[in-house]
Amino acid sequence: MNTDGLIVVDKPAGMTSHDVVARIRRLAKTRRVGHGGTLDPMATGVLIIGVNRATRLLTYVIGSEKSYTATIRLGQSTITDDAEGEVTATTPAGAVTDEAIRSGLAARTGEIDQVPSAVSAIKINGERAYKRVREGETVEIPARRVTVHRLDVLDIRRPENPDVIDVDIDVTCSSGTYIRAIARDLGTTLGVGGHLTALRRTAVGTMTLDTAATLADLEERAPDVIGLPLSEAARRSFPQRTATDDETRILRHGGPLAPAGIDGPYAVFDPSGEVLAIVSERAGRARAEIVLSPA
User: Which alpha helices (H) appear in the chain, and where do they start and end?
Assistant: First the structure.
C-alpha cells in the first residue's frame, strides 16, 4: 500500500478545506496531511491533498493556475461577495444588457489589479481578514496583480425575479485570483452589485475533476486512499530529469549536480523511476530545493 502521495478530492459543499484534511487524516491513519489551495465552504471541486512526504509538494501545487465554473448573481451585493454572507444592498438589474455584461467581464481578463474579498483568509497585520470583519472592523486589503488567462460566458439567465440576472462563467486564472472579487467588481462596474452563488474548481494545474475522488469513494478505499503515488505526482507536476547512479548518491546526500539546462523547479528521478528531489538550477549548479528520498 502506498502511503506517500497526492489525492485529488472532489470537495463537497458545506465543508472547509481543513474539514477535508481532518477526514483524510482519519482515513489514511496519519497526521501528516495538508492541502494545496483553500476552497471556501460554499465551493466544490478539485482540492489537492498531500499525504506524508507528498505534503512537501504542496508548496508548488498552490502556485499552479486554476480553473473554475461559477455563477454570478447581479442585482445583489453581500458582505462576503458570495451567497454565504448577508445581503448588504439590492439594485434592480433587469435593465442591464447582455452586451454590458460581456463587456464588463472582458475588462476583467488578462493582467488585472484585484482587491481580494474583505472576508478572506489573507492576513492583515498578522490576523486573518475574515476574523477582523466578523469583529466589526472595516478592512482595507491592498490590490494585488493577478492574471485571468481565460474568462468565457457560458450563459446569461434572467430568472423569474426580474430584478436579478444570473451569469454562468468558466475561468482559468493564476493562483491568488478571487472569483468572488470578479463577481463583486462586475456588479460594481454595472452599478447593480453582484455576488457569487456557485463555484466549482475544475482543475489545479494538470489535475482535473476527471481524476477526482469523492469522500465517499475514499471511505470505501481506506486506508488505501492515495490517488497519485509520490513519484507519479512529481511526474504530473514538474519537468523531469533522470539521474545516473553516481548522481543519485550525491542527490540523496543533498549535494549539487551539474546543470541540465531545464527551467526549474524540476523533479529528478533515480534510474528505477523513483523521485529523488525537486531541484532548481542557479549559479551553474542544480541544487535540491527538497530531497524526497534522502540517504
Answer: 17-28, 58-62, 98-106, 129-134, 179-190, 215-221, 230-237, 245-252
Closest CA to 166 of 135, 143, 188, 187: 187
pTM: 0.90
* DSSP-H helix ranges across 17-154: 17-28, 58-62, 98-106, 129-134
Domains, the chain, with CATH or none: 5-64+205-229 (3.30.2350.10), 68-197 (3.30.2350.10), 238-291 (2.30.130.10)
Identify the three-state secondary structure at position 288: strand
Tally of helices (H runs) and strands (E runs) in the chain? 8, 18
Per-residue pLDDT reduced to its tens digit, 143-175: 999 999 999 999 999 988 889 999 999 999 999
Q: Give catalytic residues, as residue numbers.
A: 40
